[in-house]
Amino acid sequence: MRHDKIKAARPVEQEAPPSFPQRLESGLEAVLFGSRWLMAPFYLLMVAALCMLLVKFGQETWHIVTHTLSMTESDAVLAVLSLIDITLTGNLLLMVLFAGYENFVSKMDVKDHPDRPEWMGKVDFAGLKLKLIASIVAISGINLLKNFMALDGVTMSPGKEQQLFWMVVIHLVFIASGVMLAVMDKIVAVTGPRH
Fold first, then answer.
1. Distances, alpha carbon 11 to alpha carbons 3, 5, 8, 14, 18, in Å
2. Cα-only R_g, the chain
3. CB-based contacts of 102: which residues, under 8 Å, 6+ apart?
4. Cβ atoms 79, 59 nearer than 8 A
5. Which of 132, 79, 127 is nearest to 103 (CA)?
6. CA–CA gap between residue 164 and residue 158 (Å, rounded)
7. Burial class of residue 160 (count of CB atoms within 10 Å of its CB; 0-12, 13-18, 19+)
8. DSSP letter at 83?
9. What global pTM score does this model have?
10. Handedness of CA 72, 53, 90, 136 (dihedral sign)
11. Average pLDDT by consecutive 10-residue portion of the chain (195 residues)?
């Protein structure tokens, strides 16, 4: 009897169903990964905070516009510094909003948008820390400058003097923190991750 390429049928190998610990682990990981969406309301509320800053900016601008003719030169500079302070705070908020959402929740699907910031999607957690501390130092510096501009040597009280002293100390701590973070990131980049 002739056999025309008859092959013995092999039993189809079926994967064993996952065990209970594997299913438990998989479910736990899915819940943990999905929990990143709990951060989304935080970022939405940051948009509300940005709107609040816009209202304060409008208020400050209105105050400047309505009092421009009666302002002294130093008052005008202080008013403009207030606007810069609010603007820098808004930039800081927007940076945390974009970078935080992209790093911790989900990538934003705006790749082809012509107004997409260059840094968006490229700022990792280390870069965000450095940008944050740089913005905080700038905001602190503007506040310090505003307070120095408002000084009046005749009415300088010991309480005001102590307040200015602590503002300078806090500003220097911010600067030192920024330098330390930059140095630590540089060390990590040079040494590389340890396995």
1. 21, 18, 9, 9, 20
2. 29
3. 108, 120, 121, 123
4. no
5. 127
6. 10
7. middle
8. H
9. 0.68
10. positive
11. 51 72 87 89 93 95 92 85 89 86 82 74 73 84 80 69 85 89 81 62
